[in-house]
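Form 7-S
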Amino acid sequence: MNENGNRPSPESLLAKLENGEQAKLRVYIGAAPGVGKTYQMLEDAHLLKKQGADIVVAVVDTHGREDTRAMIGELECVPMRRIEYRGVTLEEVDVDAVIARHPTIAIVDELAHTNVPGSKNRKRYLDVLELLNAGISVITAVNIQHLESLNDVVTRTTGVRVRETVPDYFLRRADEVVNVDVSVDTLRTRLRQGKIYDVVKIEQALNNFFRKGNLSTLRELALRQVATDQATKSHDYREREGLDQAVIPEKVMVAIASRGSAKKLLRVGSRVAGRLASDWYAVYVETPSEELGRIKPPDYAALQENIRFAEELGARVIKLKSRRVADALIDFARREGITHVVFGQTSRSRWDILLHGSIINRFLDEVRDATVQVVPVDQKSEIRDQGLGGGQEP
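Output:
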């Protein structure tokens, strides 16, 4: 549960629904499985129902926890859609059925879930966006390690690469982000009591993902995320109400190459843009040798994947055409008033830099008003991981 005692009340959500036409999104976020996100959602759902809200459960994953299962109680559940996949019958959110029922609010658990092939949408967060577009408010939940821009940080901290992620722009769409927080010791006690995983998994979890150091870091990340979200919303409100001078917005640019994966850089850019409450660009320069028909097929495939990933994170993708990459990036940064730039840099010999020059050094020499962040990139490990790499530093 939220130990801070300042969780937004169900009454506040109901008031927002009554005062506004747009569907509302509330996201419960936690440091790890077992903090009580699903339980808290269901508790609030019952309070909303008592106050007269038309609320249904689209999906709740109890993970075999009896107290969570009991919390569903008399809440109306929209039947799940059954899908045959590789000889097994699986269940996913029936988006069309929820829209046809058209409640005021729908409970959608496990936000980062990847839907089984044959589902209407590839990811559950896309199901949520479809419900919101249909005018249905949603209450959902996710763990902090599933936030896309934190993927690399979580991997370094826990040694586990999280494969199911939610793009940062989804959280920026949320009207409320609520931190469901318990202490590290409380969470580990719940694990030992068998309230999170089966008994056979307890010792392994305690010695791996649920180590004290890991949980402390994840808890800090969750608290920072909610604080950032609150600061952004407060800034937007004060600006909208004319309570302070409008601040010139920060503009973030991530320079990606037309070859190799750039996911690490894009995650950093997304995180910076989120902190600065700004829009941001993913920029690549197409040289004559990289024009359509000339670019190597593997490079073209990597570029398209970078573009898809950048758009998923909420970036505006910009293609520039030039024989000189540095000139194009410098001109774009000056023209758009870029204030923060993210470059990737691989290990290069001093002779290579002297012979071919450095785009980063050129940029630093000629664009003095921008903060430049250089992200070290290990090309070999990035390629093995298929999730990191790239950058406009040749």
